[in-house]
Amino acid sequence: MQKARYTLTAIAIHWGMALLLITLFVVGLYMHELKFSPFKLQVYAWHKWAGVTAFILVMLRLAWRLKHRPPALPWTMSKMTKLGAQIGHGMLYFLMIAIPLSGWLMSSAKGFQTVYFGVLPIPDLLSKDKALGDLLETTHMVLNYSMAAILVGHIGAAIKHHLVDKDDVLRRMLPWRAR
Fold first, then answer.
1. Beta bridge partners of 115
2. Which listed residue, 47, 90, 103, 141, has the most CB atoms within 10 A of its CB?
3. Distance from C-alpha of 104 to C-alpha of 107, rounded to nearest angstrom
């Protein structure tokens, strides 16, 4: 059994990002179906602010992670399973960067500048281009559904480790000290 736990910082970042990303996904689904109104515009603004915040946090998370190695995976895991875990985590990091970037690019191409918390204008990365904006909207959606699928796999793997393998992989990331 593994004894090493993630640090409290790593645990807080993990669960904070999980909550933020799930909220962003749910709000994204919700806002897409709203009829045009001031409320819809406000929800879009909140979504964009949260997306910018997620982008900033993932950059901080990556910087922190470069200096703080995670606990080793259990020696009982096969090389292929370890490789799968590394690929899955790599894809999650890629998507945590690509999704907000695709949203930023989409907003730029659609001509809707992001003003962070209504105060700090974030420069557009592209000039207005409806066709490109529509393509980026599709890209943003596909990336989000890909993230959802990978998260289901991530959660499933954590549960499998806990219930089937009976190792500490899940417990060492829990915010409380599970036995």
1. 121
2. 103
3. 5
Tokens 């599970």 appear where? Answer: 178
For residues 114 and 54, the answer to whether their CB atoms sit within 8 Å is no
Q: What would the DSSP string read from start to end of 109-166?
A: HHT--EEETTTEEEPPSS---HHHHHHHHHHHHHHHHHHHHHHHHHHHHHHHIIIII-
Residue 10: C-alpha distances to residues 2, 14, 22, 41, 47 (Å): 17, 6, 18, 34, 25
**What phi and psi values does residue 34 have, to the nearest 5 degrees?**
-70, 145
Other beta carbons within 10 Å of 140: 22
Mean pLDDT on 32-42:
94
Instruction: Compute the distance between CA of residue 143 and CA of residue 37 in angstroms, rounded to an integer.
Output: 27
Residue 144 CB partners (closer than 8 Å, separation 6+)? 25, 28, 99
Mean model confidence pLDDT for the chain: 92
Q: Is the pLDDT of residue 153 over 90?
A: yes
Q: What are phi and psi of 90, to 5 degrees?
A: -60, -40
Distance CA 120, CA 166 (A): 48
Question: What CA–CA distance (Å, rounded) separates 46 from 28?
Answer: 10
- pTM for the structure as a whole: 0.88
pLDDT value at position 130? 96
Q: Cβ distance 145 to 176 under 8 Å? A: no
Q: What is the DSSP letter of 115?
A: E
